[in-house]
Amino acid sequence: xxxxLSKYRICDFTGQLAGAGATKWLASFGAEVIRIEDPVRQGxxxxxxxxxxxxxxxRGIDFGGAFNNHNTDKYGITLNLRTAKAKEILTELVRxxxxxxxxxxxxxxxxWGFGYEALKRIRPDIVYVSNCGFGHxxxxxxxxxxxxxxxxxxxxxxxxxxxxxxxxxxGHSYMDHTGGYYMAMAxxxxxxxxxxxxxxxxxxxxxxxxALTLHGPALLDWTVxxxxxxxxxxxxSNRSQWVPMAPHGxxxxxxxxxxxxxxxxxxxxxxxLGDVIGEPWCADPAWATLDARLADQDRLDEAVxxxxxxxxxxxAAAALVAAGVPAAAVQRPDERVDHDPSTAxxxxxxxxxxxxxxxxxxxxxxxxxxxxxWEMTRGAPCLGEHNEEILGRLLGYTPxxxxxxxxxxxx
Amino acid sequence: xxxxxxxxVLELSNERIAFAGKLLADMGADVILVEPPGGDPAxxxxxxxxDEPGPDRSLYWWHYHTSKRGIVLDLxxxxxxxxxxxxxxxxxIVIESEPTRRLARLGLDHDDxxxxxxxxxxxxxxxxxxxxxxxDQSVTDLTLMAGGGPVWSCGYDDHxxxxxxxxxxQGYNTGxxxxxxATLTALLHRFASGTGQFIDVSMHAALxxxxxxxxxxxxxxxxxxxxxxxxxxATVPTGPTxxxxxxxxxxxxxxxxxxxREFERLDAWLKDLGFADDLPEAVFLEMGAxxxxxxxxxxxxxxxxxxAIFGAGxxxxxxxxxxxxxYDFFIGCQRAGLPSGxxxxxxxxxxxxxxRARGFQVDVExxxxxxxxxxxxxxxxxxxxPWRIARRAPRLGEHTEAILGALPK
Lengths: 411, 409
What we know:
The complex is a heterodimer of chains A (about 400) and B (about 400). With about 400 residues, chain A is an alpha/beta fold.
């Protein structure tokens, strides 16, 4: 495919989601992303490779559902970097690549002899992007992390909670996704810099730092006004943090574990809400102003919940939205994937073909580019699936030579 | 120079895309924030400098508009539309989150603008996509997060409590991340092709693909994750990972020890702290430390010894946590090679020695106040192309004259 990024080749050591998510973006726009995996450990550094969910109960190193989701349209080769020959092959591959990416713990690639200085000797304008929890510099650079730990240390876990309860945190690795987004941005920024100056560079990305930038106003309230987020009683994070809105919350509906989000931004929204609900408390003069509602949110929430509790979440949301009030049902995965006209219209869940798994749907991209849109067709590579193709096409090895390298334990 | 030096961006001021403009501006782009007469309503969002409201005192505004310049244009007036067209002729990127048909009505939609400037990249960030009629309905960060997937996965083991929406405009932020990724992709393509294009960003879609297993568990085998306190929502319940420490703060304990080396380090840490005698299961920790080869994890729950060893690992962590402050637990665990994290409030993270040592805090001058303030710093470090806050957020119309004066006559 001729995509926006087709001219770029990525020598890709990433895995999990924080790294693989970044190069998935590049691959979906046509970049040639070559995953390099360790044949001795069967690529298990990326624990998702052989991990559930599995389609049709078929298990194994090539069947991980998450791995497939995060590695669409990439190539996969194996290199046993304990051998000199594999290092020679990697050196040749780096020479022909624009970018080297990894999200190992700090120092791992350097220990293999492929730190930034070594990469630069192979290719002076190489872009090297490393992504780890605390970055490659600083007192915690050797500490181990993954998504939930990044979220804990950066304040994201703390700021997701209900009053009187422990932190609820995030029920997914928001910062593995988002760390991957920042990694993709960093790779492309460094490529733009190279296009304009001819210079490469090493980008050090610390997921915890990227996460900390997501609390801007709260941090300024701290540095400017000295007001901490940690308070004697934590406010509900379902309330509006800065923008004055009330009622603003997530309310129960009919059925089991069914919920509705409502946000009233203004007196106009409040009156519109009252017109839909039509109960006496909606006209209570005590709640006529936004300031009064902001000061009395506990009682207000009880009143709103009293109405929602006997309503279907989708019907109530539709009635409120029609009246101009921001509202949305809390959607379950099945609802937003298979019964949501907006995601269907978008084409958000493309079907790819995986060599071992077969046809399977994956997360698409939430953007459309008019001239060079993304495309997803192939599933994640099986372990070493493209050894012959890549070593042949890029480095001139014959199929017989590749077979011998495999026997010798190089691939 | 930095990566985006000289790249001109016109941002039609809207709280939904403010962060995307900041990400571009802090990397050196010349971002011109176009506000309507009277200013963007977000200038009135708290918190305020010294808690006193005022159009240039909103810290919310300060954060989201660093490094930008500001101009006032009334796009409903034909004279200002003509000025906007002149500006577009000098621009590389337009980013907006307008009602889906407004720009077409004003003769300023992509085809109109690209006729003026073929290399223009036009980025439209809307709730559900430019062609989706739902995009003109009212949304907030909360309603987007609820409908788009993240809220379903976040909350508590007790499902009588509502699911939870994390703070910080993360719904808007996620849309902005994709807007910037798409913009950079189009810029790279423009180096080769010389032409711009139209980019349609759906905030709802952005959140739908930022839910990890919630989406792919359903896509792969039709299973549905259920929320759990302080840990991943899962299709099969998992054990707690959050413990309250002696100082009342919480830690995420990560995954308890799983191999002999980790049991050995935990055992050593417990002994260093002098707590070994208080752990009835201490003998199993030592057994774990002296185990030959890896554990057969499939026997967990059926083999009494392996089960006891793993139980001892969890009990040891709980015992330590109950006796020392959260920060000490975090450092001790990590020094023992066990992943763990202190659950910081944002300001505690900001003041942590690691981030201070990395220079995460940056000073930003506010000349008219005669003061500078500490701001959060770079999300990534490009040494040849450094991230930088070039200036504090613009006052209303601050750069109108300078920008219009520099336009070709």
